[in-house]
């Protein structure tokens, strides 16, 4: 009987010790210490945040970080892209009018893989002086993600839900220094494989900096690395470059945005058909929209089946020789 009581006492002591040992951990989790700084006392002005749209990426364009980024692109991103994505680059000759000047590459957005695919597809004159418009509320939420985004892909924070003078001034300054920029006018990745309306950010930057806009259509990355997937699967990818567009005297931000979206839609049509058919449709104003059918979600998803199948590598069975 004594042994039984002793066993119960030991169990009781063990349970209480476990509860006591978990108290500091629970307190840290509740206060988020030391991952989060202490709250600012009442009556004291809070220090300005140095992440998000306020993160300074100027250091990432110094010679050292640029060398690291170029080496990472050639030794890591390029081999990964070559293995997983059978990338076909079309109409890179349309970039010749740019000379060696900078440009705004405006592309559709289906996947996180879009950025790496486009970086590896760009010819060297623009690849070596390139920065990416990264969502401030996604890639610049912590100091670690901010530094990694700026170092390895050359990202610059852009506000998606508000207008920030700092996030607009930095890209304009770089574009005037003949840097090139990758921007996704849709503002985010596709949810169902179809595009959404283009936002006027690219048009505004083109107007303020004088840089031309190059429309780009990327096809196949939705199969390569769809949304909510953390690792790529092998797929065929096509990157189609369009002719540079200049912000004209009679253009407005709205009209120029519509021109960019129409040019990207024509490139998508060119990928599915050919140049002649795409140009004829564009001239007649009947280019298929990037936004897909105005229907129920299941119908929109079903309508992308043909596009997904065309993005996968096709393997033909060899026929027996005819004798």
Describe this structure in words.
With 323 residues, this protein is of the alpha/beta class. It has a single domain (60-310), classed as Glycerol-3-phosphate (1)-acyltransferase, CATH 3.40.1130. It has helices at residues 2-31, 63-84, 113-121, 124-127, 136-139, 143-152, 165-176, 201-209, 221-224, 253-272, 275-284, 297-303, 305-310, and strands at residues 85-90, 104-107, 130-135, 155-158, 180-183, 213-219, 235-241. Strands 1-7-6-2-5-3-4 form a seven-stranded mixed sheet, with helices on both faces. Helix 7 crosses helix 8 (201-209) and helix 10 (253-272) packs antiparallel against helix 11 (275-284). The longest helix is centred in the first third of the chain and has 30 residues, at 2-31.
Give the CA-CA distance, first to last residue. 95 Å
User: Biggest sheet, strands in spatial order?
Assistant: 1-7-6-2-5-3-4
SSE pattern: HHEEHHEHHEHEHEHEHHHH
Query: What is the tally of helical segments?
Result: 13
At the first level of CATH, the class is Alpha Beta
Question: How many strand segments?
Answer: 7
State the domain count. Answer: 1
Helix content: 40-55%
**CATH fold node name:** Glycerol-3-phosphate (1)-acyltransferase
> Mean pLDDT across all residues, rounded?
83
Low-confidence runs: 308-318
Structural class computed from helices and strand pairing: alpha/beta
* Level-2 CATH architecture: 3-Layer(aba) Sandwich
The H-level CATH homologous superfamily, spelled out, is: Glycerol-3-phosphate (1)-acyltransferase
- Global geometry: globular
């Amino acid at each position: 009987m004594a042994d039984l009581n002793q066993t119960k006492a030991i169990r009781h002591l063990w349970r209480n010790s476990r509860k006591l040992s978990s108290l500091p951990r629970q307190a840290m989790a509740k206060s988020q210490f030391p991952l989060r700084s202490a709250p600012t006392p009442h009556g004291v002005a809070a220090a300005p945040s140095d992440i998000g749209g306020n993160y300074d990426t100027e250091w990432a364009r110094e010679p050292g970080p640029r060398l690291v980024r170029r080496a990472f692109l050639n030794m890591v991103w390029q081999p990964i892209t070559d293995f997983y994505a059978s990338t076909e680059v079309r109409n890179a000759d349309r970039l010749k009018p740019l000379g060696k000047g900078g440009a705004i590459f405006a592309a559709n957005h289906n996947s996180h893989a879009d950025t790496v695919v486009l970086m590896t597809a760009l010819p060297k004159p623009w690849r070596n002086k390139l920065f990416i418009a990264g969502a401030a509320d996604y890639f610049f939420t912590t100091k670690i993600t901010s530094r990694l985004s700026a170092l390895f892909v050359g990202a610059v924070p852009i506000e998606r839900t508000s207008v920030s003078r700092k996030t607009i001034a930095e890209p304009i300054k770089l574009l005037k220094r003949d840097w090139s920029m990758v921007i996704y006018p849709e503002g985010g990745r596709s949810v169902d494989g179809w595009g959404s309306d283009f936002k006027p950010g690219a048009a505004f930057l083109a107007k303020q900096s004088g840089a031309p806009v190059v429309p780009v259509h990327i096809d196949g990355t939705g199969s390569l690395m769809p949304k909510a997937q953390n690792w790529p699967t092998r797929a065929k990818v096509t990157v189609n470059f369009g002719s540079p567009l200049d912000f004209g005297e009679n253009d407005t931000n709205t009209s120029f945005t519509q021109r960019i979206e129409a040019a990207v839609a024509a490139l998508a049509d060119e990928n599915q058909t050919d140049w002649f058919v795409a140009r004829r449709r564009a001239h007649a104003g009947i280019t298929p929209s990037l936004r897909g059918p105005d229907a129920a979600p299941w119908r929109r998803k079903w309508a992308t089946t043909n596009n997904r199948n065309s993005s996968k590598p096709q393997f033909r069975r060899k026929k027996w020789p005819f004798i």
